[in-house]
Amino acid sequence: MRKWNVLLLLLVIGVLALSACGEKYEPLAIQEDVDVCAICNMQVKDNAYATQIITKDGKSYKFDDVGCMNEWKKRNGTDNIGMDYVRDYNSKDWIEFKKASFVYDESLRTPMAYGVISFKDAASAKAFVTEQGAGKVLSAEELASHDWKQNKDMMMKHKHEHMSEGSSHK
Question: What InterPro entries does the record point to (predicted)?
């Protein structure tokens, strides 16, 4: 009987050890005074547009716009991504990229003028489109085939606003 107790104990320890092996990739807090976008080097604000990638080796890359995060994925691939996060536009809570719903419209003002904002679910995204009277709701899968064009007029407007404010960016 004692032999079975030892085997049972070893089995329980083995199951617990295996369950502890799963990696958990958590987003880091945005530190506005030091965080800059990994693509455009602009300051990352702690707001609804901030996004983040945590690689499998634990490195965090922060972005000021979901379009910049997409550019990073294009340049670096997705094989080493442990988890990617976007912010819910309404609550500013971190949500997994693949679980989010997105709204795109060229007229939406985002930090790098990609015109894509994220929501925790499709219902929130649809409500935003209804309220704004413009936009198209996209899933993460649909966003993968999005053309990712920046609104050049909006970019020029951003640039002039920053220059008139006297701000300097890296």
Answer: N2O_reductase_NosL
At residue 5, does pLDDT exceed 60?
no
In a 3-state reduction of DSSP, which class is residue 150?
coil
Q: Distance between CA 147 and CA 126 in Å, rounded? A: 21
Q: How far is CA 132 from CA 31, 104, 105, in A?
A: 31, 12, 10
What distance in Å separates the CA atoms of residue 84 and residue 118, rounded to the nearest whole number? 13
Neighbour tally for 126: CB within 10 Å: 15
SS3 52: strand
Residue whose structure tokens are 């971190």: 94
- How far apart (Å, rounded) are the C-alpha atoms in residues 74 and 81? 12
Question: φ, ψ for residue 32 (rounded to 5)?
Answer: -55, -30
Cβ atoms within 10 Å of 54's Cβ, excluding its own: 20
pLDDT tens, residue by residue, 15-69: 444 444 457 899 999 999 999 999 999 999 999 999 999 999 999 999 999 999 9
